[in-house]
Amino acid sequence: MTIKEVEKITGLARSNIRFYEKEKLINPTRNAGNGYREYSEEDIKTIKKIAYLRTLGISIEDIRRLSNKEADLYDVVKMQKQALEQQLSKLENARLMCERMISSKEKIDYENLNIEMYVSDIKDYWEKNRKVFKLDSISFFYMWGGDITWAILTILCLLVAVFTVRGLPAAIPVQWNGGTVSSLVDKKFIFAFPVACIIIRFILRPFIWRWLKINIIDSSFAADYIANYLCFIALSVEIFIILYVKEIMKHVTVILFIDTFVFIGVLLAAAHRAARKR
Questions:
Q1: Are 6 and 28 in contact (CB under 8 A)?
Q2: In terms of DSSP H, where are the helices of the chain?
Q3: 107: which DSSP letter?
Q4: What is the pLDDT of residues 55-81, one digit of tens each?
Q5: What's the predicted TM-score (pTM) here?
């Protein structure tokens, strides 16, 4: 069967099927004549099983363990049931708190909100909701992945291009091999970097988001973070090209080191904030 037929039979999108294959959960054969994938009835059954378990919230990693006979389905489902029950319990508690607030005789407003009216032991209440505060601790990620950060990076790319294009040689390097330039392009290519930031945000980011969503329940902030980091790399490469032609910097590894340092720095900052919340 072709992937188009698999889509029709299973009702799943091609991207999902390809993802399961990429994760080596299915392994369709190749037609010797045309090189196309050929899916068997067994592949169809496996795809349906994977998709069903994903709807239960079971992770790709757990499904891989099941596929490799490293875990028992009963145990995995039982653990997932317990996790869902905990989530439901917390949601029900939150629902009851909301109900208490809206059912009070007096109209509630933020300015006069009295927490003690609804919570008897406030420290115990904070402890029970510790997970929420841990999520708050990753606000730095949200800041890095926000629209403002993307706009700043894009504007910086544009300003760098506008103010340096006249001073650049007719051809600028875009590829290096062993420390020497291997490819040159017209200097107007410098404007490709702010364009790249726009493409990353509005075209590439949705693809990143969809890919992450297959394996992560809420991947929006992660997609924003990755997209903005790619824009940061674009800005870094743009600056490196300018420094290279000005003979100020000769090794791209310096820029890559700086990018890595910033990336790790953001992770450590978020981890530190999370630790302080514990």
A1: no
A2: 3-10, 14-22, 41-55, 60-67, 73-102, 122-128, 130-136, 139-144, 147-164, 192-199, 205-215, 220-245, 252-277
A3: P
A4: 998 988 899 999 999 999 999 999 999
A5: 0.52
